[in-house]
Amino acid sequence: MLKTQLDKYVIEYETKDFIKDDPVQFVHRFTNKNDIEIAGFISSMFAYGKREVFISKLNHIFDCMNNKPFEYVKSFEYKDNSICNCDYRFSKDCDLIWILKILNDLYNENETLETLFEYSYKQKNEIWNMFQCVIDYFYSKVNNEEITKGFYHLLPNPKKKSALKRLNMMLRWFIRKSEVDIGIWNFIPKSELLIPLDTHVAKISRSLGLLNRNDNGYESVIELTNKLKEFDSSDPVKYDFALFGYGVNNKF
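User: That's the sequence. What structure does it adopt?
Assistant: Structure tokens below.
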């Protein structure tokens, strides 16, 4: 039975050993809540491409912050040149600098990423609209003449109906509580989380008959999440670990 097999993989892979090779490692570096959420937000944005490459880039970024992301953000100045050599694929230093500037404004207004996401969620009590509200906040603050298209890759627009894999992954880190996920936010039930869908997860899901759609966008995220809810309606996203484990064991 497929559920039995996937439940087995959840137990096998949702362990502390998973952390060391995954971008979730960066949220486990810190104990202060503000450090954790800033580290998680930045880590999720850069978590695409070859894993060893973006993890190396993230190590560099946090080194630039002296591994004190909250302190760095609170004192960040727009002309600060301590963030350098942070270009990664589509994004340039200027894109990250503007994200840090916006975070600086947010935290110095006595707000946090948590309050931004929570306010956005409570407008509609729906995750996709929450993402739209958060992203619109960042878009409204940026000077378009001082960024590249990489800014919009780091913070993709939900209106385009892509999978938003990295935002959904970050939300999994922050809402679920396990040996891997950090569970620092509690305003969304874990039953409402959406599967972080990328091409690899989509390929595995189709091979298992969990996903019928051929695209890897929003509709496929909803279809796969609803299918996984048939296995566990209270925590469907735990099967993110199972699909990873299935891929490892079956050499996808």
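The two ends are 20 Å apart (CA to CA).
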